[in-house]
């Protein structure tokens, strides 16, 4: 090892090169030779190799344990690259800064890089064209050619275009994987409670309300939460039935009693999460927690508005028309607030993998969804204008203006076709046929993209959910019921 100027960790191939005294052909069997393998022959291979090593116009390179030789004149054509700088540099000390190690006796430069990629680098210096293979990782390939100082523009346009598309696709997939991993990771891990005030108690409460697989009570609480969500939605729907409005208990309808019970449960659940979380700021920014807050706020806002409306109605004078209009507007706002209770159904996403996968799919495919709505809007404006131009002179037509034709264009593009508005002329029916055909093509475009994304995200969420289950606390209702039945049968017999 005396002839090696150490500038990094030596390769095992370099150690074998110095420590053993075999022939060069035996020592580097299987390695890649760029040019000197063609010069050597079976009879005088050793002499030709040694002469090539002593040739000052040949650069002897050892990349990742594999041998290469590049002509200095060919490398000097590209002085900006690393090999070109070595070929054109006259200062030996500066050459050492461009490589990892250097053997004085062998006149060989060592590089701790990927030898597979350097095969294409070596071909570049001989031909002037940089090749790209599909099986190579784009990110690794870009990193390697940047190290060697070669720009991607040296490739052909067709190969470069495909390579850049593959690179962008890979970066997008990596970005999605990171966001999905952040979606899957629970931000209140056990280690986050260490050193916090009442850390053990808060961790138990958090696992109870947030992690259904932590214990049997946590699983039962998750099931109970889903049941209360369904009861709340059903109660809201039944409260609009006139026959059920008259069923009262202590002056309050049954539906309101059920609503109050559900809101008390949701409020208690939210307060338990809020008090037990390890990071309040992150808790308030989480989408599912925002949904929980929206589920309970309308009830309390409704109580406040009803209180104000009662006070306003008591002090209302029959001749005060302005105050009466304000009370009427207050009643409309109250109806909107009551309608916001429908968002409680989104609470099911906390315990539903499908809903979470659907929401993540919409967030990731928002560009495609926006493009879809843009195309729909363009189609509605275009075909409504065409239909109005060919149908507005027909007596009794419904296409009296372009805005009146928007509804017909929207239901035709969506292929719903209610039939409430139809064209009367032949040209109008031709426009309708084109509108429906455009809608069929348009609706079929995003289906594959959205479905593939949704199935992929759902599979990953399902896999993460299954791996997060702790075997010691796994709930096995079927097995336990069967064991209880067998025990009862044995005791009776």
UniProtKB/TrEMBL annotation:
Q: What protein name applies here?
A: Potassium voltage-gated channel subfamily V member 2-like
In this chain the Potassium channel tetramerisation-type BTB domain maps to 59-158
Q: Where in the cell is it found?
A: Membrane
List, for all copies, the residue spans of the domain called Ion transport. Answer: 220-460
Pfam annotation, one family: BTB_2
Report if keyword Nucleus is assigned: no
Keywords carried by this UniProt record: Ion channel, Ion transport, Membrane, Potassium, Potassium channel, Potassium transport, Transmembrane, Transmembrane helix, Transport, Voltage-gated channel
Protein's membrane topology: Multi-pass membrane protein
Segments traversing the membrane: 221-241, 366-387, 430-451
Q: Name the lineage.
A: Eukaryota, Metazoa, Chordata, Craniata, Vertebrata
């Amino acid at each position: 090892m005396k002839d090696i100027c150490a500038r990094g960790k030596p390769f095992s191939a370099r150690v074998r090169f110095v420590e053993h005294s075999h022939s060069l052909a035996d020592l580097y069997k299987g390695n890649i030779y760029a040019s000197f393998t063609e010069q050597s022959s079976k009879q005088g291979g050793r002499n030709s190799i040694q002469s090539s090593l002593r040739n000052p116009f040949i650069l002897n390179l050892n990349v990742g344990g594999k041998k290469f030789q590049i002509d200095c004149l060919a490398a000097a054509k590209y002085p900006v690259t690393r090999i070109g700088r070595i070929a054109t540099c006259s200062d030996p000390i500066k050459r050492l800064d461009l490589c990892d190690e250097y053997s004085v006796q062998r006149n060989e430069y060592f590089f701790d890089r990927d030898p597979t990629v350097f095969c294409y680098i070596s071909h570049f210096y001989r031909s002037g064209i940089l090749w790209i293979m599909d099986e190579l990782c784009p990110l690794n390939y870009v990193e390697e050619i940047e190290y060697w100082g070669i720009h991607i523009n040296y490739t052909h346009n067709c190969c470069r275009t495909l390579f850049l598309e593959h690179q962008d696709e890979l970066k997008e997939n990596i970005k999605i994987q990171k966001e999905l991993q952040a979606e899957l990771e629970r931000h209140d891990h056990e280690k986050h409670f260490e050193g916090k005030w009442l850390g053990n108690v808060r961790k138990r409460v958090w696992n109870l309300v947030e992690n259904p697989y932590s214990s049997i009570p946590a699983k039962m609480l998750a099931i109970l939460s889903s049941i209360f969500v369904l009861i709340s939605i059903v109660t809201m729907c039944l409260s609009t039935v006139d026959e059920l409005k008259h069923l009262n208990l202590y002056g309050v309808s049954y539906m309101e009693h059920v609503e109050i019970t559900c809101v008390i449960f949701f409020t208690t659940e939210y307060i338990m999460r809020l008090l037990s979380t390890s990071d309040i700021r992150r808790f308030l920014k989480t989408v599912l927690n925002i949904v929980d807050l929206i589920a309970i706020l309308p009830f309390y806002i409704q109580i406040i508005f009803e209180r104000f409306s009662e006070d306003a109605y008591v002090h209302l004078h029959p001749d005060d028309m302005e105050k009466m209009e304000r009370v009427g507007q207050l009643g409309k706002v109250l109806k909107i607030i009551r309608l916001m209770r429908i968002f409680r159904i989104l609470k099911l996403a906390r315990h539903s993998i499908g809903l979470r996968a659907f929401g993540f799919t919409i967030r990731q495919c928002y560009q495609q969804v926006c493009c879809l709505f843009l195309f729909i809007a363009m189609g509605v404006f275009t075909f409504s204008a065409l239909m109005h131009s060919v149908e507005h002179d027909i007596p009794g037509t419904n296409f009296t203006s372009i805005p009146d034709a928007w509804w017909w264009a929207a239901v035709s593009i969506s292929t719903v076709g209610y039939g409430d508005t139809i064209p009367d002329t032949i040209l109008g029916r031709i426009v309708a046929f084109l509108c429906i055909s455009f809608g069929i093509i348009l609706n079929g475009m995003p289906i594959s993209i959205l479905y593939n994304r949704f199935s992929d995200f759902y599979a990953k969420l399902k896999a993460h959910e299954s791996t997060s289950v702790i075997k010691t606390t796994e709930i096995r209702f079927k097995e336990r019921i069967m064991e209880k039945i067998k025990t009862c049968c044995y005791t009776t017999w």
